Fold these 2 entries.
Entry 1:
Amino acid sequence: MKDKVKEVLANLLKVKIEELKDDLPLSASIGVDSTEMVESVIALEKSFGVKLNIKEITKNSTINDIANNIQEKLAQ
Amino acid sequence: MEKIAVTGIGVVSPSGIGKRQFWANIKSGRSFIKKITRFDASKYPSHIAGQIDDLEKYSHISERLLKKIDAFSHMALVASELAMQDAGIDIRNEDPNLVGIFLGNAIGGWLYAETELRDLYLEGREGVSPYMASAWFPAAPQGQVSIYYGIKGFSKTVVSDRASSLMALGYARKVLYKNKLNMILAGGMEAPVTPYALLCCNTYGALSTHNEDPQAAYRPFDKQRSGFVIGEGAGIVVMESIERAKKRGANILGYIAGYGTSCDGIDRINPSSDGKELARAISMALNDAGINPQDIGYISLDGLAVDIWDNSEIKALELVFGENLKKIPVSCPKSMFGNLLGASGALDMIIAFLSMEHSLVPPILNLDTPVLNGINYVAKEAREYKAAKALVISRGRGGINSVLVVEKP
């Protein structure tokens, strides 16, 4: 799950996979901005086939947070 | 009003990127007008242009940023970098609050906009990039340049059709004169070689449809003229007070000495045929520079290659310069690379500076049979000529007149 999240974000935001840290907020690891987060949530929704909440996945989220959030949505 | 120094030139054009390559091509009188290859434009009445194909080679902009911006912002970023390199400016050593950006643009960033609008209708709301809103509008390059360099001073984007960038330069001079800023990046950018923008330019009805021989299509002031050809690119310069430029030991490339502007107020598209308002703008610029018409050694023409525009331009010159006009070399170098619309004036000013520096007036291409005789056209090839002061004319739809007086240092 985490690897796929990283792959989606790296492809979308044109950053290297190793720049994305499991336990660092996206704002700290890659300096993501709010518009990039809008784009990221849409891309993750398409990739995982789930409806995500933009208030739950923010620039303060880590890769772990995002993967857990998607996992929870998939389980519902 | 006081003169303002230009200390760095950044140019991104079909005739070359960077001032050396650009000038080498301009002085050789080589045409860079070609059939459009970026997309299938063959069904458009005019499908030729001055196109830039190798911007990436000169660019340090990350892929991450490139996907958020339109080509016209990319061009402005590269031109800004080249201008500051040329001026020996390290932006990190500047007070960001005292650096400004004054740019001109006519149509916005349509390559981005039209792609996303297509997605809007095909895929719905979620198909549209969230960057669309900040990528397409005419002030986007100003924003991107300010973010990229951390520039925070008073800045503006001028949208005034083809006169936009010359107006931005005139405005920037006024702001520097008032000591509001230390330094300004000023000029313009335009990227009209896109399916929708080209369609709009075609609808305007003033483009040459001489597609079979692209290099001979743009022929200002020639009897066989059939309209202009679009081009894309950016021209941005570093402007600062003479005092500051000298203090930091900068190489002064020229001065912006006078500015004049007026409106014809006659028609939605066409200028007034009598050239009186353009003449008034020219006189205004000369007065502002504190010089007489006979002091001008070179005139850079707007040269739209449309009857009413070319003829009224010459009428305006006759009104201001009278008999003396015959002595002054006039040219329209954009016939080599296309009309960069909102960025055209900035390129013309840059060429005027390079011409004065090298004592060489570049040619108007394709001027086989001038419509009006008795004008000192520099046709076909560059001519050696020492000019100390030049006049640059830029005009927009509906009769917007913008004129700069520039001087050799």
Entry 2:
Amino acid sequence: MLQGFFQIVLFMVILVAIAPLFGRYMAIVFLGQKTWLDPVITPIERLILNGSGVLSAKSMTGRQYIQAVLISNLMMMVFVLAIFLLQNRLPLNPTELNAPSWDLALHTVISFTTNTDQQHYSGETTYSYFSQMGGLGFLMFTSAATGIAVAIAFIRGLTGKPLGNFYTDLIVSITRILLPISIVGAIALLIAGVPETLAGPAQITTLEGANQTIALGPVAHFEIIKQLGENGGGFFGINSAHPFENPNNFTNLLETIIMLVIPAGLIITYGILADNPKQGWLIFWMVFILYAILIFITAWGEFQGNPLVNNILGESQPNLEGKEVRFGPALTALWAVSTTGTMCGAVNGMHDSLMPTGGFATLSNLFLQIIWGGQGTGTAYLFVFLILTIFLTGLMVGRTPEFLGRKIEKREIVLASIILLVHPIAILIPAAIALAFPETLSGISNPGFHGISQVVYEYASAAANNGSGFEGLLDNTLWWNLSASFSLLAGRYIPIMALIFLADSVARKQPVPETTGTLRTDTPLFTTVTAGAIVILGALTFLPVLALGPVAEAFNLIPTL
Amino acid sequence: MRDFVISLRSIIILWIVTVVIYPVLILAIGQVGFSDQANGSLITNNEGKVVGSAIIGQTFTSEQYFWSRPSSVSYSEGSDASPTGISGASNLAPDNPELLSRIETEAQRLDNEGVKPIADLLYASGSGLDPHISPAAARVQIERIANRRQISPSEIEQLVQQYTEGRFLGIFGEPGVNVLRLNLALDNIS
């Protein structure tokens, strides 16, 4: 157990060393400064910008920006939906898969366009190589880039600058951040054992004479953008637990780090773009502490093991159900908290079989949405929480709330509240409906309190645009595909619209000079108050569900006293 | 309207970049430079016949082999797995009676075979394809295999050590014994 915690601590040291480098690099990219990659990237990028007709594009207003996000995303959905529904007539389909049902295809398209990658299917048995590469792999780049673009527009607005052009930022995010890192990362994964082939599954006779079918595919290039873009949709059904997606502890380390660097680094980027790096660092450490606490809780629970099973064994052994030997309890716990915190949603062990402490931590991540948070949006939400805290503390001490030198007024608070409120609405209402019809709708596969968690988790994962699941849930049904699609869309586009309107409205305000009377937000005290506000707001909204789910389940597991 | 045109143009160009150029580049590097890994790390026996993948587990039930972990998808073997291949976990919650009865039965079976139940031999893996068992789970099986194959336990012990994949950099992850490669090595000495 000690060695396990040592691995976790060392990992966190690596994260703290690497994330700021990414953060500074992203700041350089969006400030338009020179980098050493320019000689290679600039010509290619000009070609793409020119081909898209946005080479000398003007900055957009809030309304134009939102329109661009919605129209481009809608067109991507239609385009990829067509690929799915025609996959039996398209090439690269070695196992001759039929087109998926319309509701599954619709759910998959919405799920991947919203950077969620919730999967109600298994990759190897449902989508052809063409659908995976040409549909899902494409959306993995564009959905991640959409999140980054929105986040950058948001911070530009908050600091009084023009929002920028959506298409330019979308393309630049891909050419300068996502694609270069993916190329290097994919080659590293490939060398470490992740396959990359267009050949169909291998048919093999095992040592004991059984017929084994080994699914293959173009995995390496898909895997890296899955992690880097916080996408999380596995090439294979079982995601990064599959030895072909994550064969050893080098790949596991790489995949864990790479899913954290953009959301963690973006906080530092925000500090730099807001011309207040200290503010960025304070928020970084606040999130880091919450993250560390949740990892500790999860890992501790897994190391204690399942008391009911320990009874049978006659000794205490870690819970290994749904875990791979090579990762063990420590790295599975680390991954589970990282993937739900960052809204990646990939898994290297099954969350459904985690101990209740793990269920509590992963659900809390989905509810709070800011323990690093989604690609771009997570950092934006953190700043929304800062704005709300300024408003709350401003009320307490009787000062006009100001943030980054601009007044926070009614319109901003209304928009911030919308962002905060959409989340519980998109989770709790559909969950209540599903739970009201346990036989026909819910699809619960585990009895008792855990079943409630399964349903709530699925909607929380959809609304938070995470994509992981308590995968025992029987979710490939018309009800689940459509109701989860509602949570996916509401959890993605309503907050994005609110963020852009908020940034637009702040950008139009006159700057207020800072005086001795200004409430400073870049102090440890204010950061602590912000952490308190986040936890209290989250707890007020979701504690009842947590009590009915993982907390009750934990009590249920205590052996009869 | 302008947005539709720009969206369409950027989708086409970004699609070519991320779906054609990027994967083809990685495919070429894989197939030319690292064809073993790129094609699934398949391994062959002494006769040169492919018997599996070095990083995908298999079912072993025979007395003369080391046994793998329980799998919810039978290691993608049999007619259910054909033609696509499958992966999967039990997804049973810790308090699910099904999990407990499955583990109880398996512990009883191992006990009857004279194998001490070790956690990873009872708990089903995440992928259903886990190629490893823990060194402890290998150790408790040595005696059975030594008796069956009439080789000295110390020789098997040596093989187990040889096929134990350690932690990355000695730090990250848990050591695991590659069951297929170990069993293949056993076949090759006797």
